[in-house]
Design goal:
By secondary structure, this protein is mainly beta. The protein is built from 2 helices and 26 strands. The longest helix is centred in the middle third of the chain and has 14 residues. The radius of gyration is 37 Å and the shape is elongated.
């Protein structure tokens, strides 16, 4: 009698109503990361990642799949938040997922995460105020002025290169890399309000620090920089000649550029008399400052206590100085007086009366100097 054959029937548990919940595992992902300057602008990062084989790994929208040994690389642009714009180091994160689906049993989803700090490449951070070195061991800061690159701080021995010129920093603070930009004065235009316009001039700057680190960026010479130069020169050195390269020591009365600190000591007001032209066409410079003096209104008696108090008044005159820009020769040196204030018959509070000069009178006198 022949034995009967047995048939083994394998039925997936899921078909029998025995489905298991998916399993989620979390693991740490290991990676190294380096940053460098992107030739097309910005910064780029390179990741070397080691984790499980056949895992999809990602940095933002950049993805890769690990090989049989669990290795993958990613090259991507570095995204930096506004808060970290000037940071030397920033956090970067890598994530990965791997799904395992056995024929029988529960599905497993492996989620991998990791975070590291990356040191950003040395570079120059540019702002309206100037520049600063980012990612360097030693700090350096400065700005572009008409006189050249003005270093507020930089390691001694730093080498600077710009516009085909080179310069080595010899002082840790307050040193200027001359670039001959004053020759561009003829290209700076002055309007009837004293504002200065200038076709922006890019000034690529490269710094090589003593430790070999390099930082580069582009500064820009603008009309605002020309105006700041003229205002600060007039304010800080009234009466000083300000010739531009190649000019002869000539006079002239075609135009007058005035810096008025009497109206606003913190932010001087500028005015211009004459026909608009280039900065090199300005013949006269002027500076208006305020001088304070005063006197007494006498003694006032308190009707309740009988005590007496002296009340004083103050007067703000305008001291006006005008000179030839190219030679420094004085053209006008006068004071426009403020009217004496009226002392009241009664005193209210502790402040006495005050007066100031007439701005209109100052401008009338300045206007007569231009022919």
């Amino acid at each position: 009698m022949r034995p009967r054959s047995a048939v083994l029937l394998l039925v997936p548990l899921a078909l029998l109503g025995c489905k298991k919940e998916d399993k989620i595992e979390t693991i740490d992902i290991k990676f190294t990361v380096t940053a460098s300057l992107d030739p097309n602008g910005g910064e780029q990062v390179h990741f070397e990642i080691d984790t499980l084989p056949n895992m999809e790994v990602r940095f933002y929208s950049n993805t890769a799949r690990t090989d049989a040994k669990g290795h993958a690389t990613i090259d991507a642009h570095l995204f930096v938040s506004d808060a970290d714009t000037e940071a030397s180091e920033v956090d970067v994160a890598i994530s990965g997922t791997l799904e395992r689906k056995p024929f029988l049993g529960q599905r497993t989803l492996i989620i991998a995460t990791g975070k590291e700090k990356v040191r950003r490449p040395p570079r120059l951070y540019m702002s309206r105020a100037g520049f600063s070195c980012i990612g360097t061991k030693e700090p350096c800061t400065g700005k572009l002025g008409v006189g050249g690159v003005q270093f507020a701080s930089a390691p001694v021995g730093t080498r600077a290169e710009a516009l085909g010129k080179s310069f080595t920093v010899s002082k840790a603070r307050d040193e200027t890399f001359p670039l001959g930009l004053l020759e561009k004065a003829k290209d700076a235009r002055v309007d009837d309000k004293g504002d200065i316009t200038f076709t922006s001039l890019p000034v690529p700057l490269t710094l090589t620090l003593p430790d070999g680190a390099k930082a580069s960026g582009t500064l820009t010479l603008t009309g605002e920089i020309w105006k700041a130069y003229l205002v600060s020169t007039v304010r800080d050195a009234p009466g000083k000649a300000l010739p531009f390269p190649g000019e002869s020591a000539a006079g002239g009365k075609r135009s007058l550029y005035v810096v008025d600190r009497a109206t606003n000591p913190t932010t001087p007001v500028v005015s211009y008399f004459g026909s608009p032209g280039s900065l090199a066409d300005v013949d006269l410079l002027g500076f208006v400052d305020s001088t304070l003096h005063g006197g007494t209104c006498g003694q006032y008696r308190n009707v309740k206590t009988g005590r007496t108090t002296e009340l004083t008044y103050s007067m703000a005159d305008a001291k006006v100085l005008v000179w030839e820009r190219r030679t420094g020769k004085k053209v006008l040196d006068t004071v426009v007086r403020a009217p004496k204030p009226v002392c009241a018959d009664t005193m209210v509070g502790n402040s006495g009366p005050s007066s100031r000069h007439s701005d209109g009178e100052v401008k009338d006198r300045l206007r007569t100097l231009v022919r």
